[in-house]
Amino acid sequence: MAFLVGGANSAADTGPYDIDNSLKFFGVYGVKTTYLSFQNGESANGNRRTWTASFWIKRSETASSLPTYGNNADGIFTTWDGGGFSMCFDDEDRLKIIQATTILRLTNRFFRDMSAWYHLVLAVDTTDGTADDRMKIYVNGVQETSFHTNATITQNTDFPTNHDSAYYWYGVDWGSSYHRGYMAEIAVVDGTQYAASDFGEFDSASGIWKPKDFKDNITFGNNGHYLEFKQSGTNQDSSGLGADTGGNDKHFAVINLVATDQCTDTPTNNFATFNPLIKSTNTYSEGNTLVSMDSSADSKTTSTIGVSKGKWYMEFLRNDNDNWPVGIAGSTIEGAYVGGASTDSLSFWAGLAGGGAAETQLYVNGSEIDDPWNATAWADGDVVALLLNADDEEISLYKNNSIVGSAYDYSGLNWSQVFFALGNYISGNTYKTNFGNPSFTISSGNADANGYGNFEHAPPNGYYALCTKNLAEYG
Questions:
Q1: Please, are residues 207 and 81 in contact by the beta-carbon 8 Å criterion?
Q2: pLDDT of the residue at 364
Q3: Per-residue pLDDT for 1 more than 50?
Q4: Does position 321 have pLDDT exceeding 60, yes or no?
Q5: What confidence category does residue 338 fall into, taking pLDDT thresholds of 50, 70 and 90?
Q6: What is the band of 163 on the pLDDT scale with cuts at 50, 70, 90?
Q7: What is the Cα–Cα distance from 122 to 250, expressed in whole angstroms?
Q8: Which residue has the higher pLDDT, 172 or 311?
Q9: Could you give the CA distance from residue 313 to residue 388 in angstroms, rounded to a whole number?
C-alpha cells in the first residue's frame, strides 16, 4: 500500500489541496442497495462519443467475499439506455468496462488493496483515428496499457453516457451490481477527453499521486456533473448528498444513503478501518467499520494501519451482552485473541466470566493477567475506547470516558509495530467501530485536537484519530 502521508498538505509545488468528504456505500443484493441516480432528459442530450469520468475509490471487499451477478461483481457506475455501459471490478478484482454484453477493457492489474485510495480516470473519444486512443484508463496518474481483454471500439461509437439515459453511481437494484466502499470527488465531463494529469499530480516529495484543484480548469459541458459530497441531505437537490457542484445542477437522487454515510475518510486524509484481508470469513460492512465475526474462536482482525510511535484513539459501541475481546496486536496475522496458543496479541476481554458474572479480563499472548481490570461490568450501549500510547508502549481501556483499571505496559512484548485488533469468543460478535468515521450514531460529536474524526467522547489530550494527516505529524 502507498499512503500520501499528510495528504495534499505535503505538496510543495502547488500548495495544499484537500478533499473534505467521501460517501460510504454499502449494498447487499436483494436486501439493501445504496446508490446515486440521475435521469437525463431528452432535451439535455450531450456528446455520446467524447467524455471523461474521474473519481477516487477505496474498496471495502475483494471479489472472493462478494457474490457475482452477471457482468458486475462490484459495480462502480452504469449508464442505461436500452443497453448498459458499465465500469466495475470483476470476480477476480480486475477493472472491467462493458458495453451491453461486450467486454471492452479488462485489466491484467488486480485491485485488492483495501487500505488505500485509487484514482481512476476513464477518458473516451471514439472519434479518434487511433483505435487504442478511443478509450483510455488511468490508474493513479498512469495510463493502463496491460489488458487481459482489449476490444477494438468502432470509430464514432455512441455510448449511453450523456444521452436520455439513467446514470448510476454504485449498486443498481435492477440487476447485477452493488458495491461496498467509499467514493470521493466524482467528475464527469461531457464533450472533452481529459487526461489524469488534468485531475491530479505526483507529489514532489513522495512521488505519490494526489488530487489537485481542477474545477475551474476543465469544462464540464452540458451534461457533466461534479459530486463532492459536502451536503448531508437526502433530497435530490443542492442540499443533498448527491448535489452537483459543477454548475449544471445535475443533482442525483439518494437511494438508501443517510447523513452518517458522509465521511471524512478521503484521498487526502486516509483513515484506518479494519482489514478484511486478515479474516475473510468475517462479514465486513459500512466501509469496514462494522465487523461481524464468524463463529470460530480464532476469528480475529486488525486495523489497516499500524504504528510505531504516537498516541492513538478509537471507540466501539457495545451492542450485545457477550464477551468482547478488543485490544492490540504486534502483527496483522494474530489479531486479538483470548486463550489458546496466541502470540503477538493483547486483548481486554470485556464480557462474562465463568458462571455468567460480568467482568473485564486482560489476556496477553493467550494468558490471563489479573487485577485491576477484572472488576468492571459492561452493558449494551457502553462506549468502549482504546488509547494506544506507542511512545511509552502502553494501552488503556476506557468505559464511557472513564479509564478501566490502569494503563498496561506492553514494552516487554518487543513489538516493532502495533495494530488495533478485534477478536471473538465462539459467539460471533458484531463490532461497531469508530476510527473517526463511525458505524454508529454519535450523540455528541467530538474531534481530536487537530480537528479530525467524529467521536462520542473527546480524545484525551495528546491522543489523535488514526489517519494519515495525524501520522504525518505524530507517527
A1: no
A2: 84
A3: no
A4: no
A5: very low
A6: confident
A7: 20
A8: 311
A9: 6
The grid coordinates listed for 448 are: 481530536
Max distance between CA atoms of the chain, in angstroms, equals 77
Q: Same fold for the domain at 7-263 and the one at 283-474?
A: yes
- Strand (E) or helix (H) holding 58: strand 50-59
Long-range pairs, 258-263, Cβ under 8 A, ≥24: 258/234, 259/232, 259/233, 259/234, 260/438, 260/441, 261/23, 261/24, 261/25, 261/26, 261/34, 262/21, 262/22, 262/23, 262/24, 262/229, 262/232, 263/21, 263/22, 263/23, 263/24, 263/182, 263/287, 263/437
Whether domain 283-474 has CATH 2.60.120.920: yes
| Single-letter residue type at 162 | N
What pLDDT is stored for residue 405 in this prediction? 84
Q: Is-contact 327 421, C-beta < 8 A?
A: yes
CATH architecture of residue range(s) 7-263: Sandwich (2.60)
C-alpha to C-alpha distance for 185 and 220, rounded to whole angstroms: 14
The Cα-based distances of 459 to 326, 384, 402 in angstroms read 18, 12, 12
DSSP 177: B
Task: Evaluate the omega torsion of the peptide bond into residue 372 and state whether it is cis, within 30 degrees of 0.
Answer: yes
Residue 427: predicted pLDDT: 64
Each domain of the chain, given as residue ranges in start order, spans 7-263, 283-474
Residue 251: alpha-carbon gap to chain centroid = 23
pLDDT in tens, 397-447: 999 999 988 899 999 999 999 999 988 766 667 889 999 999 898 998 999
Burial class (CB in 10 A: 0-12, 13-18, 19+), 35: buried
Burial of 141 by CB count in 10 Å (0-12 exposed, 13-18 middle, 19+ buried)?
A: middle
In the block, residue with C-alpha cell 494503563:
407
Write the single-letter amino acid at 209: W
pLDDT of the residue at 342: 59
pLDDT tens digit sequence for 183-236: 999 999 999 999 999 999 999 989 999 999 999 999 999 889 999 999 999 999
Q: Which residues contact 112 (CB under 8 A, 6 or more apart)?
A: 59, 62, 93, 277
Cell numbers describing residue 182 = 467509499
55 with 184: CB under 8 angstroms? yes
Q: What are the strands, taking DSSP E only, across 294-439?
A: 301-302, 311-317, 324-329, 345-352, 358-364, 367-369, 383-389, 394-399, 402-409, 419-422, 430-434
- Tens of pLDDT, residue by residue over 63-84, are 766 544 444 467 788 887 767 8
CA distance 407 to 384: 15
